Amino acid sequence: MNRLETFKAVFDSAPDGVIVVSHLGKILLVNQQTEHLFGYKNEELTGKGIEVLIPERYHSKHIGYKADYISDPSPRKMGSKRELWAKRKDGSEFAAEISLSPVKLKDKTIITAAVRDITERKKAELEIATQNRKLQIQYKELEQFAYIASHDLQEPLRTIVSFSELLQSQCSENNNEAANTYINFITNSSKRMQELIKGLLDYSRVGKHRELRYVDCNSIVQEVISDLGTAIQESNAQITINPLPSLNAYSLEIRLLFQNLISNALKFRLNENIPIITISAKAEKKYWHFTVQDNGIGISKDDKEKIFIIFKRLHNRNEYEGIGIGLSHCKKIIELHGGEIWVESKLNEGSTFNFTIPNNKHL
Ligand code: ADP
Is 330 in the pocket of ligand 1 (CB under 6 A)? Predict the structure, then answer.
């Protein structure tokens, strides 16, 4: 095989259609893949203007693009910000990706255009975009449902709680022990239900009116620590706050996040141990990595993911109070910021809650 034949074989076996065009836009040569893509034979294209492969509606614009390219030729993708369409011999069209590169010959410049049919890729992108839109709508509907349900359930529940309290105070005067016990159950359960519904309502409200601000995490954590003053004093907790960053974020939500993590670190302490809590942050390339570390009861491997589920608790209310909503708030807040949250932990040794917040100025 001589050199020319080798070149021809390489040219024809290229996976993209390759079209060689003169500086005036006349087709000089095409490879086999071009014939396959456009349905023309090589000889039908040779000598024709490149416009034969472009839908008519783009012709007038293409003349301008062509002139621009010839005045400043360099290897580049065509129309990186707009959709490109190519036209086959039978008039049908396909979405195309086209890369141009100039080839300098002795006295003139010719251009090679590599054409790729991206119909399948476009179809897949469209499918993903449609699925995303659907998911977003479903998520919004679910949030709306949680909001309406929890909002509207509050009123009848309030009535149940007040009347059962009334009944409780009246029945305690007569000595019907069984009736008193039952009424106690009703009162306690409806109060509990009130807490849960309020939790659900709060959850659906998280981030609803979020405002992006430049947030100094040091002062936010200081404020949270001062709000938790009583719990800190009672437990003699030792809290170390390493330097934290200022970042563009939703300030109220970030405050709630730290409040939940620090109050959990205080609450889930091991026996009567003094809580030792360390809050730190480290800059990574594209995000900040925060940690809230404690020496508390720890979390088993199997439970590390479950604890972020709404109303999921690992303990009886008599051991540790709460309704199991704090960490689901944290997860929602971090997801609003486009970050991630997870825990590293060993039972009876302590936990480190990790979360990331991307350095994203336009959330
Ligand atoms: P709550 O504090 O109301 O129980 P959360 O959603 O904040 O709800 O936490 C869910 C569960 O995760 C807790 O019940 C607890 O079992 C576990 N947990 C959270 N934080 C810690 C921690 N710092 N140490 C050990 N367990 C924790």
Answer: no
For residue 264, report the distance from its CA to the centre of ligand 1, in Å: 6
What is the distance in A from the centroid of ligand 1 to the CA of 284? Answer: 27
- 174 and 52 both lie in a single domain: no
Asked whether 294 lines ligand 1 (CB < 6 A), one says yes
Short-list 291, 261, 308, 259, CA closest to 356: 291
Express each pLDDT in 180-208 by its tens digit.
888 889 999 999 899 899 888 888 888 88
**Domain check: are 9 and 142 in the same one?**
no
Taking the model in full, what pTM does it have? Answer: 0.70
Residue 86 domain boundaries: 3-117
Pick from 268, 320, 321 the residue to mutate for probing ligand 1's pocket: most ligand atoms within 8 Å of its CB: 268
Could you read off the pLDDT of 93-147 as tens digits, one per residue? 999 999 988 888 888 889 999 999 999 999 999 999 999 999 989 888 888 888 8
Report which ligand 1 atom has the smallest distance to the Cα of 322: 3
Does the C-beta of 203 come closer than 6 Å to ligand 1? no
Considering its fold, how many domains does the chain have in total? 3
Pocket of ligand 1 contains residue 314 by CB under 6 Å: yes
* CA distances for 127 relative to 33, 94, 122, 131, angstroms: 27, 17, 8, 6
Instruction: Say how far apart CA 15 and CA 28 lie, in whole Å.
Output: 19
What is the rounded CA–CA span in Å between residue 106 and residue 103?
10
Give the length of the chain.
363
Residues 354 and 230 in one domain: yes
Alpha-carbon distance of 273 to 295, in angstroms, equals 8
Indicate if 215 and 201 belong to the same structural domain.
no
Q: Which atom of ligand 1 is nearest to 265's Cα? A: 23
Does the beta carbon of 299 sit less than 6 angstroms from any atom of ligand 1? yes
| pLDDT (tens digit per residue) in 243-284 | 999 999 999 999 999 999 999 999 999 988 999 999 999 999
Q: Where are the extended beta strands (E) located within 274-360?
A: 276-283, 287-293, 341-346, 350-358
User: Which mutation among 273, 302, 327 tests ligand 1's pocket best, with the greatest number of atoms within 8 A of CB?
Assistant: 327
